[in-house]
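Contributing new records

If you add data, match the layout below exactly. Sequence lines come first and carry their own label; structure lines follow with theirs. Keep one chain per record. Anything else will be rejected by the validation script.
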Amino acid sequence: MAGMVYFDMIRFPKEFLWGAATSAHQVEGNNSGSDWWEWERLTGRERSGEACRHYELYERDFDLVKDLRHNAHRFSIEWARIEPEEGKFDPAALKHYLDVVSALRTRGIEPVATLHHFTNPSWFARDGGWENEKSSARFSCYCAFVVRALAGSVRYWITINEPSIYVSHSYLFGVWPPQKKSLWGTIKAEKNMIRAHLKAYRVIHGIYREAGIPKPAVSIAHHMIAVVPCKKNPKSRLAARLRRKIFNERYLDTLKRHQALDFIGVNYYSRQLADPRGWGPRSLVADICRENHHPVKKNALGWDIYPEGLYDILYRLAKYRLPVLIAENGICTNDDRERWEFLREHLKSVHRAMEDGLEVIGYLHWSLMDNFEWDKGFAPRFGLVEIDYGTQTRKIRESAKRYAEVCETGILA
């Protein structure tokens, strides 16, 4: 009714970063110099191929980003394109990413650049990948080359996306390249990835300092899961505490101790119900509820939808006294009504944490568009924008339009 005033609206700060995220291999297409491209062919699984042809269609896609009222966009730079051979950098690839950043800036969109999002150059992978002691130095050289070129136009840098997920899936569970199942390999890869971030952090800050550019904001994008004890007994509670420490806090504790975080990038999707069947380490760390004791809705991949878990994670991050950027949060679904409900309820959790005093600087939805979902192929649909892979046409979903209203006004009704 005209003239009615609504008091239940949620308001976000005017300077809040609103947007969505993508990663190079998942959207660009024809990433033929990477280990994933090679692995897709060797294993006979679904290939990324042209993906969304974003490498050539990025200007058109950024027009959509602007139309959707986003003021920030997270993308990744493909190391395999920049450095196709060790020590040999491709100026044409670098120019492409300069053009990408320029296209965002021209449209009034803040670039959030990721330097490593799961993929590696083939030469790097063949020489031991992240198990090689040289890996962190190699990564920092690549970072230096890119950052020197982009420093004047990029403030927000994410060095490595979800290092804990990359290490576990590639070296512990063996479901991603190089498909190792080695505890020792996992330990080495994790150690080298942490070293890589520490070196990259110093390199990035050094470049800005030498150039007289205002300080950048550098972090990782850390995968975090809401761990909830299935039962109220001491065993379940201990298991939940251990898992929060191991999966959510351990990386952050290390990087904070080395003063190598300017903000915390949070990737959040789901919940885990801790239900250990014994007191042994494996049970305490890995056993989950199998009896559906606390049922919630699930997405198309079977992941629990648990918006209150995002609040719980943000509440626990307050002890680090750092700004937080939601670098990924989204749902795989074929029902777009579920996508908007997911988005709205998670934004409520973000705002609740902000009301409790946590500094959250932005929210980036995963993903801008449907894309190649790693070992799961093209079937999962995460996008605000629907992709017809046969014609490469884009269609803005209704959830994207409703999110655009929030981005434009800063109000969640």
